[in-house]
Automatic annotation (TrEMBL):
Keywords, ordered alphabetically: Acetylation, Disulfide bond, NADP
CDD domains xrefs: CC3_like_SDR_a
Residues covered by the Semialdehyde dehydrogenase NAD-binding domain: 3-105
Leader sequence residues: none
Protein known as: Protein HTATIP2
InterPro entries referenced in this protein's UniProt entry, alphabetically: NAD(P)-bd_dom, NAD(P)-bd_dom_sf, Semialdehyde_DH_NAD-bd
An individual GO BP term: import into nucleus
One MF annotation (Gene Ontology) recorded for this entry: oxidoreductase activity, acting on the aldehyde or oxo group of donors, NAD or NADP as acceptor
Subunit-structure text: Monomer. Forms homodimers during oxidative stress. Interacts (via N-terminus) with elongation factor EEF1A1 (via middle-region); the interaction is direct and competes with EEF1A1 binding to guanyl-nucleotide exchange factor EEF1B2, thereby inhibiting GDP for GTP exchange and reactivation of EEF1A1. Interacts with nuclear transport receptors XPO4, IPO5/RANBP5, IPO7, IPO9 and KPNB1 as well as GCN1L1/GCN1 and LRPPRC probably through their HEAT repeats. Binds NCOA5/CIA.
Pfam families associated with the record: NAD_binding_10
């Protein structure tokens, strides 16, 4: 069985990931690095650590020699402002990646976004692209990038744009799985990605995420 740590465990995808890891027979130990307690983390396999993401490097002992790092950190410009968004989606994500690399972790699984592009003039896509590139330069044995479309989920906070898009996307999903995926599908794909034999950097787009999520194995 594998061991892992998770950052972003309280978000839409991260919380679903924790639920699935609780049920998974593939993981014997999961360390959660979060600002607050994660209610879904039930069972002896979970170790919860309350962290200050500005000082994430202080948690080396908590993650040393684990097998996998799962990163589902993210916020929005509307919620946190441009500077706050960049701090979370770039700086904190990179801190997690460096923590993993420096402590012998071989696999890094990242939730990014469809359309991620370091050359984009849009802050969101540009930041996602920069992070993908910079983590790639750390040369993990396996680096899997999840690039979902619209994420279907019930968030605690209301996001008008996502709500409108969700309504518009539902008819399209009947004909194509290119446009959206559920938080649960993304989380399941993240777990399944760690069980493949492939090495190096791989990008899973929305179609791949949905296909791989169907290959469920506890």
């Amino acid at each position: 069985m594998s061991t892992a740590f998770v950052v972003g465990a309280t978000g839409a995808v991260g919380s679903e990931l924790v639920k699935l890891l609780a049920e998974s027979t593939k993981f014997s130990k999961v360390v959660l690095l979060a600002r607050r307690s994660v209610d879904a983390a039930t069972g002896d396999k979970f170790v919860q650590k309350t962290v200050d993401f500005d000082k994430l490097e202080e948690h080396s002992e908590d993650v040393r020699d684990l097998d996998v790092a799962f990163c589902a950190l993210g916020t929005t410009r509307g919620k946190s402002g441009a500077d706050g968004f960049y701090k979370v989606d770039h700086d904190y994500v990179m801190s997690a990646a460096k923590l993993a690399k420096e402590n012998g972790i071989k696999q890094f699984v990242l939730v990014s976004s469809g359309g991620a592009d370091e050359t984009s003039r849009f802050l969101y896509m540009k930041t996602k692209g920069e992070v993908e590139k910079e983590i790639g330069e750390l040369n993990f044995d396996k680096f899997i990038i999840m690039r979902p479309g619209l994420i279907e989920t019930k968030r605690q906070e209301f996001r008008l744009g996502e709500s409108v898009a969700s309504v518009l996307m539902k008819p399209l999903k009947l004909f194509s799985n290119r446009f959206s995926s559920s938080a649960t599908e993304i989380a399941q794909a993240m777990i399944n990605a760690t069980q493949t034999e492939e090495t190096g950097k791989h990008i899973w787009d929305n179609v791949k995420i949905i296909e791989e999520a169907k290959k469920y194995s506890a």
